[in-house]
Design brief:
Elements lengths: L5 H4 L1 E4 L9 H28 L6 H30 L3 E3 H34 L4 H4 L2 H27 L8 E2 L6 H7 L5 H34 L4 H9 L2 H23 L4 H24 L2 H13 L1
Parallel strand pairs: 1-3
Antiparallel strand pairs: 1-2
Helix pairs in contact: 2-3, 2-11, 2-12, 3-4, 3-11, 4-6, 4-8, 4-10, 6-8, 8-9, 10-11
């Protein structure tokens, strides 16, 4: 097979979730509802935090940015998948694929870093409650979000640059519902060893370091909770980080599932399911986890509903 510049051909083929035409309407309705719930849920969280002065604290400032990132993360893949289902098409242009790669890694990295920042926030709140407002002052909070933004931007541009340097052959079929970089590397005719090394190093910064920060934060939190004498005190302390811990387990658990399954085999149904979980389902579930377990958010949402 002779390699050629894909920009001349202009499109990849996303094989999607299923090729069964009878399943397409069902999948379309299901993922349209999931996407609408994702946007609505995260928008309500954003409105609640904006409208209630009691929620103008570091924890809710980070949650506000996480909701924005979740909407962007879901919007990177789902609309294109829905359009392809509706038009009975599998194509995505080369520019569209590069854009999807760029935004996917930007919002995915942003989610990962914000979850690490939120773990640090919970550590300070539980282990240093008297110094919470001093340590996590508005300037530091803004700085943490800005640093997360620029690291995410760097991560996304590195991945985009790596993909743009690849040369492809006649096989353009991606066995996913979005432009997945590991699958693009498998399609490339050119040598991908340098790409793999660079992407691995960038992934350590964007994935391993935030995960290590979260692990260390919860190690300190759990150590602090065990020193609390009363059972009620332990429960109250742990309940303040229960929502965040649930989101972390969902995001990193399914993301790790994709990584492990893709390293074991070229393609598997389990990998597809895990991809759906952390790219589509987790951004939808996040607002419900935080609103159902948080009375302050519930009160703010009730005020919004009354106004409407």
């Amino acid at each position: 097979m002779e390699p050629y510049n894909l920009t001349q051909d202009l499109e990849f083929l996303l094989l999607g979730l299923s090729e069964d035409p009878k399943l397409q309407p069902i999948l379309f309705v299901a993922f349209l509802l999931i996407y609408l719930l994702t946007v609505l849920g995260n928008m309500l969280i954003i409105l609640a935090i904006n409208s209630d002065s009691h929620l103008h604290s570091p924890m809710y400032f980070f949650l506000y940015n996480l909701s924005l990132s979740d909407m962007g993360f879901s919007s990177t893949t789902v609309p294109k998948m829905l359009i392809n289902m509706q038009t009975h098409s599998k194509s995505i242009t080369y520019v569209g694929c590069l854009s999807q790669v760029s935004f996917f890694f930007f919002f995915g990295c942003m989610d990962s870093l914000l979850l690490a920042v939120m773990a640090y926030d919970r550590w300070v709140a539980i282990c240093h409650p008297l110094h919470y407002q001093v340590i996590l002052n508005p300037s530091l909070c803004r700085c943490l979000v800005l640093v997360s933004f620029f690291i995410s931007l760097m991560d996304s541009q590195v991945h985009c640059l790596m993909v743009s340097q690849l040369t492809f052959c006649t096989n353009k079929e991606i066995p996913q519902f979005f432009c997945d970089v590991p699958e693009l590397l498998k399609l490339a005719c050119s040598d991908t060893s340098t790409n793999n090394i660079v992407i691995f190093l960038v992934s350590i910064i964007a994935g391993f370091l935030p995960a290590s920060g979260i692990f260390y934060s919860y190690y300190k939190i759990i150590s602090s909770i065990f020193r609390i004498p009363s059972l009620y005190g332990k429960y109250k302390a742990f309940s303040t980080c229960g929502s965040h811990l649930s989101v972390v387990c969902l995001f990193y658990g399914t993301g790790l599932g994709v990584y492990l399954s893709s390293s074991v085999s070229s393609y598997s149904r389990e990998s597809m399911v895990a991809s759906i979980m952390y790219t589509i389902v987790v951004p939808m579930i996040n607002p419900f986890i935080y609103s159902l377990r948080n009375r302050d958010i519930q009160k703010a949402l009730q005020k919004i509903v009354k106004i409407i």
